[in-house]
Amino acid sequence: MKIEITTFDAKKAGSVDLSDAIFGLDPRADILHRVVQWQLNKRQQGTHQATSRGEINRTTAKLGRQKGGGTARHGSRKSGIFVGGGKAFGPRFRSHETALNKKIRALGLKHALSTKAKASELIIIEKAEGFDKTKAAKAAFEKMGLANALIIDGATLNEGFAKAARNVPNIDVLPIAGINVYDILRRKQLVLTKAAVEALEARFK
């Protein structure tokens, strides 16, 4: 698959051949769903926890007489039916992470890249640099028609470019190590630098 390389001045800068094994697959929604669900489960903190009756320090003395009081025969104020009592079956501290094979994760990334390529929402640029002001970045993105995009650079980000782009709404900038299925799918367009393409092809070689 051949695709043209552009610059942030909206000028052509040659072309690049993309591997069909990475960018030319028929996207499968089931694989994408599994990988996205795995990502969201993994990042959920799971620090929610309610206090159970065993964790409350309240009196366990009998509340009243066994008979004749006109009330039920309660033996503890820790019960969940009282104000200040423990929560029955409340949320507990736990991990929400689920297991997913590395092969499925890698396949999910390929299908996400193929989804963008098939929908003509993949843009290849020469370099992600050239300006260090948000105003200049916003003007360049508008010139290229980028309103909702994920920009992936090589191993390291250009610091000036990253700082300029991070204040532009709906624009995300990540190094190649941070590329993931969820971020690719949540943005309308995917922008890869030449360095990012080379790194992806080396990764899936």
The strand count comes to: 6
Tally of contiguous helical segments: 7
Given the helix and strand composition, which structural class is it?
alpha/beta
Bulk shape: elongated
As a percent range, the share of helical residues equals 25-40%
Average pLDDT taken over every residue:
91
Strand content: 5-15%
Read across the widest sheet, the strand sequence of neighbours is: 2-1-3-6-4-5
Radius of gyration: 27 Å
Rounded to the nearest angstrom, the distance between the terminal CA atoms is: 16 Å
Name the features.
205 residues; alpha/beta; six-stranded mixed beta sheet; 7 helices; 34% helix
Verbal overview:
With about 200 residues, the chain is an alpha/beta fold. About 35% of the residues lie in helices and about 15% in strands. It has seven helices and six strands. The chain has helices at about 20-25, 30-45, 100-120, 135-145, 160-165, 180-185, 195-205, and strands at about 1-5, 10-15, 120-125, 150, 170-175, 190-195. It has a six-stranded mixed β-sheet with strand order 2-1-3-6-4-5. A hairpin with a 5-residue loop joins strand 1 (about 1-5) and strand 2. Helix 2 (about 30-45) packs across helix 3 and helix 4 packs across helix 5 (about 160-165). The protein starts with a strand and ends with a helix. The mean pLDDT is about 90.
